[in-house]
Fold each of these.
Amino acid sequence: MANAIASQVQALYVGYLGRAADQAGLDFWTNAIANGTSTIESVALGFTLSQEYQAQYADLNTRDLVGKVYENVLGRAADADGLAFWVGEIEKGVISADTLVASIINSLGAIDQKVIDNKVFVANAYTAAAGSNYDAQAGAAAIAKVDGTAASVSNALATIESGSLPGSVAGVSVIQGLYTAQQALAAFEKANAGAVDKLVADFKADAETTASADVAKDALFNVKLDAVKADAAAARSALGEESLAVVTAQAADAQKALDAVVAKLSFAEKDLVSKYNAAVAADKAATGATAEQEAAAIAGIDKATGFNAALKAAKEAGVEFDSEDGEGVWAAYVGKQAVTEPAAAASPATEADRAKIAEAFKNVAFFSSTFKPAADAEYADLKAEVALNDATAKLMAADNGQAYISAANADAKADQLVADVTAADAVKAQVDALVQKYADVNKEVTDYTDTTTGAIDKFNAADASVKIADLDGDVTAGAEVKETFFFADKVAASDDHTITGFAKGDAIYLGSNIAFNDGALSAGNNSALEYFLIQDGVDAKLVIETSVYGSANTNLEGVTASESSLNAAVITLTGVSIDDLQVSNGAIIYA
């Protein structure tokens, strides 16, 4: 946005010269005033001394001078009273011809002030849009039809945007809007990649039948997000249709039912309940060894160095083995697992036998490192199971024991459902939020690219004389159309294209994330994405790095369309001299 001083200077350009300022001139005078080396009055005087001012006003008589300034400043012919007033002021010597513009600007009424304000606003817009491609003719045309209405401002801005003015690039803001939306999409994916990967991993760990189980590690972000969306919905659905509020109420009812049973317990039954609850907690805490850990321990001890000697020592110490292999050692060290009902048939190994086996196998490295940790965990789990079976049997024998166990199980199940629903709802809410936000940032992209309602198609439909087109292959530029070519997606090394018919007013827009290097290909910046212009016979070639690449002695044969570079894309402009190309603000323009 132009600051106040810049707008004052812009007003002098509009009033004295009848055009928008060029950026270099605007910056020079604005900085001079800001630094205190000039004043707005001295700058105005300097304008009157310029050749451009003299060419417009020097040979005019007083009446024609006033009329010309009215046209430049207000975009209208001078009214009779205004004309007479300002002619009189000059003839009486109140003001000079050279200070007429400043005097008029400083004495505008509300209606005319709106006109100059609008012209300055549009002039600032043109100056910024044109950059180093400024064209004085276009600078005048940009503000020529601006008056005090909002519609005139909108029309002028649309003309600037269309690229129909000399030195301008068609559709830059539309293309840049697309690039900004794409960058926002990429940033969203990067920022949320870790969260989505974790969700995928969590769902894979929960059940191999989930959608996430079929997602590859290097799958695209949207594929992973779709998978976890399906998984989150399925996980919640598996818990039933009841809301968290409903299952919480059900859990409260289950607790009341349990409290009612507890109230009926005798002192002796309460002691049995206490022991039963402790056994339940211990059994829950004892996770045991996984099937994989057990299998690895049995297979490994069988093959361990010193196994036979250790087995012999354990037998000599009095340990009896069902079989003289890893499976037998496991059974002797852990105990008998229950394979049929009743579960109480399970029996842990004696501590004496466990101590004898540990002593006999103490020099077998695999025993201490792998076998023993897994077997100890399984032993603890077996002991907890046996203890729970015992506590359950004793409580069941009591008058109110069965009722307590039934109510306690129902209460625990209800509490677990509350916990599961809470967790599932939280995950689903997290996923749904990600999905919605992702849809929002995707919509920003499709708002530009949709083939029926997108901003790109709307731009192209609005004016047949200008067009913006995705550079996705070899193309022929339209002779009667001012075209801006751009890459709708990230530039790839395979994007070697040829443009025929590239002519005055046509442009290629790359955006601001890649820097122009006007040196040789062998003098590149090793730390930045760059593009180069080179002459290859009668053709100009635009070499665009697709990854940050260091200097290389690349000859012309190495950047032809038929020989794709691994690090750059090459756009060939047939029959174009690079002397006719201007580079500004990420655009390559045939000037």
Amino acid sequence: MELSSESISSRAERERVIAAARVVLASASLFAVWMDPAEPARYADTVYLLHLVYVAYALGLGGLMWAAGTWRRPSSAHLPLATHVGDIVFVSVLQYLTLGPSSPFFLYFQFSLFCGALRWGWKGTLWTAAATFLTYMLMAASMIRSLGPEQFELDRFIVRSVYLLVSAGILVYLGRYEARLRGEIERLARWPLSTGAESARVVDQIMEHAAGIVGAGRVVAVWDAGEEPDVSVASWAQSGGWASHHAPGVLYPLVPTELEDATILCIGRVSNDSALLVARDGRLRETAGSLHPRIVGMIAGDGLASAPFKTDRVCGRVFFTDFNQPASEIVPLTEVVARQIGASLDQLCVADQMREIAAGEERIRVARDLHDGVLQSLTGIRLEIRAVAAALAEEPGVRDRLFAIERALAIEQRELRFFIGGLGPGGPRDEASLEGRLHAMRERIALEWKLPVTIRYAADSAPLPERVERAIPLMVHEAIVNALKHAQPSRVAVNVHGGAQELRIVVSDDGRGFPFRGLYEHDALRASNVGPKSLLDRVSALGGKMSIESSEAGSRVEMVLAI
């Protein structure tokens, strides 16, 4: 078995402590036997000799460890077990020679218990207790036969038996407690990285890891980052995780204003009427006030521990609930984990900002290339078409068709200029409403394709996120052109309907449909690699879902975006 340098060093330190204790205990016992020889008298010389041998053994073993560093070698891993068994055997022989259960050297059994706890934790304590208790019982049974009930001290036997069991129980508890603390520290050391993966996935991993450290079945984090207008909420439970965004007024204040910087606990089932305990100066005090009703609905469970976190870019609070076995150190543990969550969210915020900066620089480069390349080429094509149309005065039909194409190109140039302006930090921007841009696009498509296209737009008064509003005309345009190019329909209908939580776009036609037949949901489209890939990627980038239903009578493309 390979051991790290730290584990070898820790084991060596434990063995040094045990060796020193063994020397002290053996020397004190030898001195006691010399001052007052043990009973019965016929074994006094044997007991004295055993102590001399044990003192020499203890001094020799301790000197070997301190001088030669034997315990720093992984090959010496079996020596602790050998010395542990030797200590128990010595204690058993010594007590047997000095009236067994009444022996004054019962303390050696306690020494063995402590050695087992130091070396192997609570499991070592348990096995050592079983071995010593069994030895003690066998010794007592043998002494009853040899001494008789009159000489056998039953009261001392009962007290020492119980003392042995109680000592073992306390050491097992302390060992398990230490193992749990060590596990929590190890889990903190294995905190998930905040980069290298999708932000939503990283947040979900952080929430799950934090819940495991605290021992909670559910965790909810609420925070606002930088200059973002919305408040972010992430939740994890055994059934899965989810994330959402809300306006600040919907959730704040999360806790009473005077408790914004305090760690809060709640005992029992969390509800709107639950009494809150605030942790300050190492004490818990009941306080007035209650949690925000929306938060109570999110964290319904048994018990609550909540702590704030704040960094340069992120400020919020985490709520742990539904505890299986609340830890006694829940307050400091919650505060440490909350700070870790805040630091991770801060790193995510920095990573997102860096990606936005990189994307902005890339958009500026693309805008420059479009302006200097495609836009200038379109201008030249328009001039050529206009010249050809003017020369065809005797062909009015052809001339009108060319002028229509030239007007469509002019509209496309205008849209391209607005698109370029949206990519860069300055320049012209389209101030038209989404409905106006959709209708302008419909007219442009009608000029280019000479085919009836209808677009119906219905949405509530809530404004759409900028990135969604900017993407909708591009998505609708791509879906319509795909139908016109590949399905040869006689009509195309578009319905854009926005609700409070989602926006739904449906593009249907009466053409010949896609190469496949039937209904394909979002995951099936990704797995089978059918349908318009660029449109699917655009919808996925916005966190939406797309489905396609295709038949010989036409097709229906549905895109759903969360807002």
Amino acid sequence: MFKYLIKRLLHAAVSVILVVGIVMLLIYSLMDKNSIFQNDQRWTKISNNVKEEYKYQQWERYGYVDYVSYSDYLDILVKKKEITPEKKAEVVLFGYEDKYDTEEVHTYVQKFRTTYLSKGYNIVRLKAMRLSEDSDILKTNGEQKLFAYKNINVFQRMWKYFTGIISIDNIHYADDVVGKRGISFTFFDPVYGGKTFSPAIMGNGTKHKYLLYFDNRFPFIHQNLIEFKLGTSYSISEGVDISDYMTQEQGRLVTKTVYYPTGYVEESSDNLHELVYIYNSNNDDFTRTRFSDNYTNTGTYKMGKSMIAYSFIIGLIATIISYLLAIPLGILMARKKDKLADKIGTIYIVFIMAVPSLAYIFMFRQIGSSLFGLPTLFDTNTSNLLVYFLPIISLALPSIAGLMKWLRRYMIDQMNSDYVKFARAGGLSETEIFTKHIFKNAAIPIVQGIPASILACLTGAIITERVYTVPGSGKLLTDAISATDNGVIVGLTFFYAILSVVSLILGDILMAMFDPRISFSTKGR
């Protein structure tokens, strides 16, 4: 088993890398990169040189090119202590065009050119756009620009993506800290006023103030030490990583009694467990009243759950209902083959398969609303559990039909096997034959699909969530494709690929546990 798992994990890793690589190749090679501007409001408001520079800046954000401005280059020199900030201020302003550069500015511009040309970059210098040749007045957005850019190949892009997926917080993240850098442990979390037993691990110098903590939100224990970065969104959610976007709470703000680090107490929606360091942010009276250092960026408490939580809850309950109903009904259809129960079940299966999913979802929605008064629109700000009912039923019904169909087919195939004939000849009852022999063998492929069914709940259901306005994760991929949000498309591809390979491995393990005859080890002769 161990060798099998290692082999499958290696194959899975290669498969994931290939899938992500192919998607990157399709996005960045075949799609028009100017499509990222179709919903960009700023793009329509700017012009001339500013627009040209903005184009390359956005191409960098979306992963098409590597972009460096002349000012960025000088910042690098300051960071390396090759020039002083004062010197940068003197040479950062270059002329309307080459001939107007001072001798000192010309020297640094040439260094910029030489440095980036040697690295394979293209240098772009846009002359200032003046109203006339002898005028010092510039056209709107006509300022002179100097920058370098280089197209990124798929291998560089993949390397950058995969090496940036996992980020581990450390005590050297913050530029300046109050007190000593390090990690501390407490049994009495300051968030609760230091009076409630609640263990927490806190950092000073780290990105996050709380590295591990407990609260009353599922799964009740949370950590910020290791972050998984799937890909930054620039259209769906400006500048937010898709993993954070999927796990952020939604809905109306909720206020609680908040105990700030300075001892200040007030009713607020600030979630101090999500405190993040921001350089020089504790610089006004309002902030200093509440915070004693630069860990000032808080999260918020909200009424609703995250996208992925809504999708998983609805999907998991629907999956459980599907298996609880489909297994006995599938067995009944097999035992009563060609009789009334089998015919009724077959009609249901054919109906679900023949009618478009959108049609029967709207039909169930209308029946639930008209006959039973069930809510048809999801509300993140309500505690009414009935909002879950129709989405769950709409997801469960097709799953029930699918499981019934396959279980019936597998059991009927097993009914004609030789071991069934021997069992009957041995005097076993039909009930014993079905439960102890036929069902056990027929259920093997059904059991293998359980992990896939559960993990698929994390991806959400596109049609169901749109019909019932469930704020789940099902619509993310279609929204990202519509908005040409490349980071989200790649991130979700990686996420779905990981879920797929994990579900296959777990399915094989579960199948081997269910049937001891299945072995993944091989013996040489």
Amino acid sequence: MTLISQPSVTVSKVPASSAVGNAAQKVLFVGQKLTAGTATAGALYSSIENDGSEDTLFGAGSMLSNMIKAAKKINNISRFDAISLADAESAVAATGTIAFSGTATAAGSLNIYVGSKINNKYVLPVALNATAASLATALAALINADTKAPVTAAADTVTVTLTARNKGLEGNKIGIAIDNSVAGITTTLTAFANGTLSPTLTNIFSVLGDERYQTVVFPSSYEYDFVTKDFLDGRFNVDDAMMQGVAICGLTDTLSNLKTAANALNTQSLVILGDKTETGDTHKGSSMLELDYVKAAQFAAFRALKFTDGIDLSRYIVTTGGALDYFGGTHMASFPYFNTPMPYLPLVPQGKGFTKTEIEELYTVGISILGNNLSGTSVLCGEIVTTYKTDVASNPDETWKYLESVDTASAGAEYMFNNLKKDYAQSRLTEGDLIAGYSMANEGKIRATFSNYYGVLSSKGYVLFEAGDEAIKAFQDSLIISIDKIKGKISATMKPVIVSQLRGIQALLQIAFSVK
């Protein structure tokens, strides 16, 4: 068939001009596996499913499996990846003991906890006239029936010896507690100890290539330099990429040792969740009887969740005046971490943990604390601080003291980076006027672009930068742009004023006895 079609008409379609959002959250877990796990030590496992496959990959009850299982209680949406490590060849497993003595003069039960007060509770029935040896045998059986427990148990007459499933230093921090008693029966706890050697960490991050993780979770017994100085610090500011992330770990120790550890550190890339070592007769280990890496994993899971667009955060938000803050997104970078409920962590028993004065001392040196609310009914995040304290010249500097400040600046920088990439993917550079209809850039256009970005980042949906005419003018006045046509480069410096958090209110109440 012969057709005539004149004039020739072509309508081409191009993408809509819309802003580019920030990257989806990814969390990397680093920890030890068991020999029963199918994972290859040192390999990267991406996008771990919500089907319990962490037990198959890393071994049920392993450090890494328990990390991921804890995180998925809070967040089964974000991408979770893992690098699994084998126990060091010459490592020794930590051990603790529970010894029984006497004969029961009444029936009852004992509540015994090993590792976690929520996940590893063992209710041991005690019959009238039950012997210490029978109780030891029964308790060992209860613990060994718990395939998710971080330990195995063996009864030898009246003593149950608990052995960490993973060998190494981290096992020394496994807690043990008993919170009730039965007439005639005495229990004696020996804290976990004698675990030695962490896995070899050299070059473990080489499998990541240029993959970015906003959060990295690792056990504090691995030391800090391997994940901060050797990995994340170098990614905080890099050329032509957004790679920054923050490492989270838990650390149980004495007040003095925690302060010493934090004082030796100075990086915006590390958050340490501190807890107190208890040494009482019925409670050995962390005051919040939970594994340190589980605390870190759950906080990391929430951090990833809060930045996920549109996700319902109502379980974790206590604000009364910000309906939009009940939903996740980039705007949550400037929202306080403190007072965030952590529903899957156990309460700190009355009389244990750090005092208010001690908590303030820990904040000052860069240790964050999770603890009970005032009514003692739930666990909340306190101030979340990094270990950053001084600038490169060793001058006191609070720029990156709070994790919210790191998050806010990083989120703003990422938005600008992504949209500069999009808006100037192909463009001419000139010091003269722009010619309509052509892709061109000059100082005026670049200035207008940054002003537009500031307007977006200070408005609904972001609230990262100060809003209002005065703040915008201050930003514009700070903006310095220079052009190098030979190299085809534009350099820009600016001082956006970020939104902070309301951390305290002081009011003076003067008493009066008359309105006259």
